[in-house]
Amino acid sequence: MSESVRAAVFGTGSWGTAFGMVLADAGCEVTLWARRAELADAVNSTRTNPDYLPGVELPENLRATADPAEAARDADFTVLAVPSQTLRANLAAWAPLLAPDTVLVSLMKGVELGTTMRMSEVVEDVAEVGRDRVAVVTGPNLAREIASRRPAAAVVACTDEAVARRLQAACHTPYFRPYTNTDVVGCELGGAVKNVIGLAVGIADGMGLGDNAKGSLITRGLAETTRLGLAMGADPLTFSGLAGLGDLVATCSSPLSRNHTFGTNLGRGMTLQETIAVTKQTAEGVKSCESVLDLARRHGVDMPITETVVAIVHEGKPPVVAVKELMSRSAKPERH
Ligand SMILES: NC(=O)C1=CN([C@@H]2O[C@H](COP(=O)(O)OP(=O)(O)OC[C@H]3O[C@@H](n4cnc5c(N)ncnc54)[C@H](O)[C@@H]3O)[C@@H](O)[C@H]2O)C=CC1
Ligand SMILES: O=C(CO)COP(=O)(O)O
Fold it and tell me: Where does NADPH bind (predicted)?
């Protein structure tokens, strides 16, 4: 990988920083944009991100700035890693600063509330670029594990396979193994819906429902993700890949997952307000469960687990009642 590839990463949270490390380790010159100047200064002076990845030493070829124009300058890849619901407003401010031929890369796993747009669609809309200039990185990539350089595979998706291959080369390291995929719709849906299923599994874990419940939720969660994907034109095989099953298993098994942990706290009996108060980082499923359900309704797709998560998180339904209702739905064949 040539040293001359430049990457800007907008968002110095856990995943923005960890993926910035991956790019730097693959040989790119990386500039992180941080919202707060103090964090940018801390990254540059201590070579760590004390707020999001304490104790992890950052590579020399990664630096930070609070100036978006400086971050964006001459970037071959402009990586976006802010909470999904803030992307539109942020990108509107950054769009005039972007390097002319830069490829925009979404790391985000959410669906916009109201518009039900996937993150790549928001990027196309706001930055006014064609879909061949927008890529997505997704898969089982818990930031803390990647930052410790523990091995993981990932998916780099773009409708233009040549662009996906360029990004693949730019982020391929001995511990990070990206595969290309041209099914952007499936890859993004896999990432966004797994957060909702992660909440459901967390709730079940918090209630002490056991591993059979977990296996059942993961599998039926994947079934409803696939149904939605099919209705939206995705390739169903994408959901048995890294962006589907891979990410779902990592999220639903790990205490590092914010969505899983958020659900566990709810399942243990914390109120929504108490759970929000102890959650310091972005748990995308909390908001995106509503936009995913909206998408399902627009496409006439039944998503009972997603519906249950919305009822528990946003309508105050007690988890015990929700479990009873899920289990007493009408009997049906498995492939439904
Ligand atoms: N952390 C992880 O393991 C992974 C996260 N993701 C996805 O990456 C995206 C970013 O997540 P994380 O970095 O983990 O979140 P985080 O909560 O660790 O960091 C979010 C970053 O966005 C900034 N931010 C918050 N509100 C903002 C606003 N209104 N405007 C501008 N910046 C704002 C924060 O200051 C912080 O730098 C999410 O969509 C998440 O689903 C994807 C794969 C792995
Ligand atoms: O997307 C992730 C792992 O691939 C991270 O999941 P959480 O956002 O639930 O922490």
Answer: 14-15, 35-36, 52, 109, 143, 258, 284
